[in-house]
Design brief:
Strand content of chain B: 25-35%
Order of helices and strands of chain B: EHEEEEHE
CATH class of chain B: Alpha Beta
Largest sheet of chain A: none
Radius of gyration of chain A: 27 Å
Largest interface: A-B, 31 and 24 residues
Distance between the termini of chain A: 74 Å
Shape of chain B: globular
CATH topology of chain B: Alpha-Beta Plaits
Helix content of chain A: over 70%
Distance between the termini of chain B: 12 Å
Oligomer: heterodimer
Number of domains of chain B: 1
CATH architecture of chain B: 2-Layer Sandwich
Structural class of chain A: mainly alpha
Largest sheet of chain B: 4 strands, antiparallel
Number of helices of chain B: 2
Shape of chain A: globular
CATH superfamily of chain B: Dimeric alpha+beta barrel
Strand content of chain A: under 5%
């Protein structure tokens, strides 16, 4: 009995120790992750190699996991990690230097390579971080890889977390990230801070990657994949970081505004049964007011900058549309006239069939179903082949004109086109409703 | 997920030393820069406070100052974090700054999760 009790006690103690160990590990990792982007960014500047920089930052994490649980998290984790990583960087330079020396002795004359005085280097955290973002979103990489690398190096996510975010295995994500870093090391031209027209182009690329991260999260159904890192949250966060790094560009603030506003509605997008809800049917009390206000503040900053002559574009227009929706207390209060006008401008700035369909919806609300149909009819029929969207919108507009038979046909066509079961049920029901004159 | 971080202290300690103000300023700047900090605020002394107490269906009001209270909320921050560990790290850093720049200060920093429509069933997990 006694020995059983002792064993149980020991097991309980071991369990507690493991839990305590996990809690400490989580605390150390949280402290490291907060500093990791600045750390990797500074080390990239020093070593001019993002793969080496990441290894050094990882070494610092390993050292922290060894030492912090015993000595406590230092009062300034950033300084501690940087000192540790710099020490490892010096070792790295010495090793490289020794290797170069030996190679040189075998071949031609000796080429001197100085170990740089890392402590004498001034910190340029903001420049470093922006340069790291440009590097992660380098044109030599595919958009998906840019997003993964940005999450890894700027967001500080683990490879396993990035893999879960993109619904792939840790091994294949690890390989993809390694290949990406190799590509960047080989095309070292991309390391310098771009300037002039190239800077604007590269900034566009960075914004597109942040938008991609967000939409990747947006398209996931929250309920089924709650272990998936919240890519929407990561996207918003990256947009906030970029807005602080590039405070003078209205489009950057617009992107932040757009993502804050879209994120404010994340939890209202489906009903209790998990069925998707359109904007008009959402319970607006479930919108996150804090995020809406942040979005509005970012949009105001964009407008102030635009007033001083900086160009705006599609992110501003999309954010302005999202803001008009967000500031309507009830669906019926929506300022469709302004939204229709914003869609007109957006269709010129970023033409495409999806925007045309949304423009048709807005015109249908603002100026009547016929106006909406006119926009819809102008879309080339094959532009959105396979998408239920144009037919669903047509059905809605026709039903408001009491052209019931045509509306039912449109809803049936939409139901046949969708691959989503819940959506098909919804569209079929609408087809029956209009056919029966409900 | 959103957390509210409270700084609680004795009313006698409402004037922090300049070094702490500066360090907190830098910490806030970093918080805004990395996208975690949503809002911060300091609260005025309880002399500017009115409290309504409800008991047995009766409402009574009292104006500050409340001298009997040992610790009052003196400031707050709303942060937007990935997980509980990240919220704890934010609060820890704030506590460390107080310990370093105001060694004679006695108080508490507390991180509490704000409930919201998107909560998963196990807060803090």
């Amino acid at each position: 009995m006694a020995s059983e009790a002792t064993r149980a006690d020991e097991a309980a103690r071991a369990g507690e120790a493991t839990r305590a160990g996990e809690a400490t590990r989580a605390a150390v990792t949280a402290a490291w992750r907060r500093e990791s982007a600045a750390l990797v960014a500074a080390l990239t500047r020093m070593t001019r190699d993002v793969a080496v920089a990441e290894d050094l930052a990882q070494d610092a994490l390993v050292a922290a996991l060894e030492q912090w649980p015993r000595r406590g998290i230092p009062s300034s984790p950033a300084a501690w990690l940087m000192t540790t990583a710099k020490r490892r960087a010096v070792d790295y330079f010495r090793r490289t230097e020794t290797l170069r020396r030996r190679t040189a002795e075998l071949g031609r004359g000796l080429v001197e390579m100085e170990v740089p005085d890392l402590d004498a280097q001034v910190d340029h955290i903001e420049d470093d971080l922006l340069r790291l973002m440009f590097l992660c979103c380098h044109p030599a990489l595919t958009p998906d890889t840019r997003a993964a690398l940005t999450l890894r190096l700027v967001g500080g996510l683990t490879t396993a977390e990035v893999a879960r975010g993109f619904l792939t295995t840790e091994t294949s994500m690890g390989q993809r990230l390694s290949r990406a870093k190799r590509t960047l090391s080989e095309s070292s031209a991309g390391f310098d801070m771009p300037s002039g027209a190239e800077r604007l182009q590269r900034l566009d690329d960075v914004m597109a990657v942040i938008y991609l991260v967000f939409t990747e999260g947006y398209s996931a159904t929250a309920a089924a994949e709650w272990t998936r890192p919240d890519l929407c949250h990561e996207g918003v966060r990256l947009a906030r970081i970029l807005a602080r790094l590039v405070p003078g560009e209205p489009e950057v603030h617009s992107l932040q505004a757009l993502l804050e506003l879209q994120a404010s509605r994340l939890h209202a997008r489906s009903d209790a049964q998990g069925q998707p809800l359109l904007l008009e049917s959402q319970d607006r009390r479930r919108w996150d007011l804090l995020l809406i206000r942040r979005g509005q503040a970012a949009l105001t900053r964009a407008e102030q900058l635009a007033a001083s002559g900086r160009p705006i574009g599609r992110y501003y227009l999309q954010a302005a549309i999202a803001e008009r929706h967000a500031s309507a207390a009830r669906a019926a209060d929506t300022d469709w006239t302004t939204i229709a006008h914003l869609y007109d401008v957006l269709a010129e700035v970023a033409p495409g069939p999806v925007i045309e369909v949304n423009r048709a919806v807005a015109h249908g609300r603002a100026h009547g179903p016929e106006a909406g149909l006119a926009v819809l009819e102008a879309i080339p029929t094959d532009a959105l082949a396979g998408s239920p969207m144009p037919s669903a919108v047509r059905g809605d507009l026709l039903s408001r004109l009491h052209r019931s038979d045509e509306a039912a046909d449109a809803f049936r066509a939409a139901a046949a086109a969708t691959r989503n079961v819940a959506e098909r049920r919804l569209l079929s029901r609408r087809a029956e409703e209009v056919a029966s004159g409900a | 997920m959103h957390y509210m971080v409270f700084v609680k202290m004795s009313e006698a300690d409402l004037e922090p030393p300049a070094a702490l103000v500066e360090a907190m300023g830098a910490e806030m700047e970093a918080g805004f820069a990395n996208g975690t900090l949503v809002q911060v605020g300091g609260l005025y002394a309880t002399s500017c406070r009115t409290e309504f107490r409800v008991r047995a269906g009766e409402v009574t009001s009292t104006d500050g100052p409340f001298t009997e209270a040992k610790e009052e909320v003196g400031g707050f921050a709303i942060i937007d974090v990935r997980d509980h560990a990240e919220a704890v790290e934010n609060a820890r850093r704030m506590a460390e700054l107080h310990a370093k720049h105001w060694p004679e200060w006695v108080g508490a920093v507390e991180a509490r999760r704000i409930s919201g429509p998107g909560d998963n069933p196990s807060p803090g997990a």
